[in-house]
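Purpose: get a first structural picture of the assembly so the mutagenesis plan has something to point at.
Setup: two entries, given in the order below. No constraints added.
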Amino acid sequence: DAGITQSPRHKVTETGTPVTLRCHQTENHRYMYWYRQDPGHGLRLIHYSYGVKDTDKGEVSDGYSVSRSKTEDFLLTLESATSSQTSVYFCAISVAGPNEQFFGPGTRLTVL
Amino acid sequence: GENVEQHPSTLSVQEGDSAVIKCTYSDSASNYFPWYKQELGKGPQLIIDIRSNVGEKKDQRIAVTLNKTAKHFSLHITETQPEDSAVYFCAAVTGTASKLTFGTGTRLQVTL
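Result (structure tokens, whole complex):
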């Protein structure tokens, strides 16, 4: 998985609780992305980062925030989880913008 | 924004036959078109990509064609093998948006 790890790999939580997912890369790539994958929707971009402390919103960013204080780590936070955020979350990295993105193994999140 | 449609949603072929998956995109400014393969429980894996200045690209049993006029691109897999069974996603990048937009996926099953 191109030097990308995601933690946790599985998580079950309750509605209203905060959740943080971590993406860690060993490639020192500038660009990092968070996607969610749901049946019938493919992968949809939540947030992305183009450098330390530089982030921007994707198409489904409501209810999510991100932080990147180090090149190697990109955190996705659900401030108050809802059942609609039950999904599989993937992190991706790339050297040069949106082209040639490489994905991590994913985190399966269930919000009860 | 960009919209990517992918067909068919499921495809079953016999081992040794060819498989073709088609995608259309809406933004004529799109300039990069990757294809990803996703096996069960894993993250998407980049298998081939094509840029807008090229009409066709091959890599062993896999080829991708691009028709910019019609705004569609296709993945061709020849001599299919059971290990080709997976979900395949197409995607497109528009330079101005600098984001990947994915199709909804095709589940390919290669039967013996």
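Residues 13 and 111 of chain A are 5 Å apart (CA to CA).
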